Amino acid sequence: xxxxxxxxxxxxxxxxxxxxxxxxxxxxxxxxxxxxxxxxxxxxxxxxxxxxxxxxxxxxxxxxxxxxxxxxxxxxxxxxxxxxxxxxxxxxxxxxxxxxxxxxxxxxxxxxxxxxxxxxxxxxxxxxxxxxxxxxxxxxxxxxxxxxxxxxxxxxxxxxxxxxxxxxxxxxxxxxxxxxxxxxxxxxxxxxxxxxxxxxxxxxxxxxxxxxxxxxxxxxxxxxxxxxxxxxxxxxxxxxxxxxxxxxxxxxxxxxxxxxxxxxxxxxxxxxxxxxxxxxxxxxxxxxxxxxxxxxxxxxxxxxxxxxxxxxxxxxxxxxxxxxxxxxxxxxxxxxxxxxxxxxxxxxxxxxxxxxxxxxxxxxxxxxxxxxxxxxxxxxxxxxxxxxxxxxxxxxxxxxxxxxxxxxxxxxxxxx
Length: 416
Known about the structure:
Largest sheet: none
Number of strands: 0
Structural class: mainly alpha
CATH topology: Ammonium transporter fold
CATH superfamily: Ammonium transporter AmtB like domains
Strand content: under 5%
């Protein structure tokens, strides 16, 4: 093992975990005050639930030796057995399988937490927990094996996805679309305005996400090397142009740049650079972030025309941003940046990589949406997914958790 590489991967794992509380703040500020705790709770429960499932079987099925035509890994690492043995297909790796395990665990956690953003104000807590357990098993784990594991069928075809454009971003976006179509709209939406109750809270969350994203992308090099440096630089560049592009879009369309738009634009830029981070140069990274800022700003407004209630725009930012990043990677990828990659169209590689990226994008969209929709229907028809109309009117915090974020007793303490 390399001490430097190991230290960097472990620090990156901590940074990615820190993104989930950041996401809780980002989401919490965007909802009404009567739903703050409920949406934060969904992020935090994912930190516990996914950790256990990942250790018991998720890591083995995702990164274990392939047992079925690139579709799924084996059971040899169930319960973290045989973790002193090298990971199959990971050549030149200078960190232990246990370090890869804990780093990838954090990816699974935040992907699950992202889905909660589309369901705010109306999803049962127990229903969400059961749904996420099934979704993790039937959607996240197979897709992670297909793309992230060297034995996965998409990886074998040469698909590039540095840090999760498919596994994290497209997955969370289109899985969210599936569950919100089953859940239905919030009562009163879009007729009733439902403004964020605390934009400063959202900005704080966005800042934490920005900070943690350096571990998310640069840590995916699994080494403290030049590729990690390139990924970190590209992450900053894409976040910056994503933020600026979103503000320009608001200026021209609505005449007013908003702080919420700035936060959303930065996140959109980082979403799009996620699959590209370790494979493209700095100038393409600027273009990827700008393209995502414009595309995602437009996408979040289309939900009002299409009448689906993705409350906090998981599809518009993460789903669309992931698609933008995966496709543009087919144009901008350069082996001069990362010799393990492939040249894209603009680097003289022809249309081959672009075709593979498009294939992976279509497969991820169809698989994640289709299977998630079936899971949501199953949970809804058995234990139920949605709270009652009365509970939705009184507030999901009180109904599901018997707590209120801002209630104070006469003595000044937090009350129930």
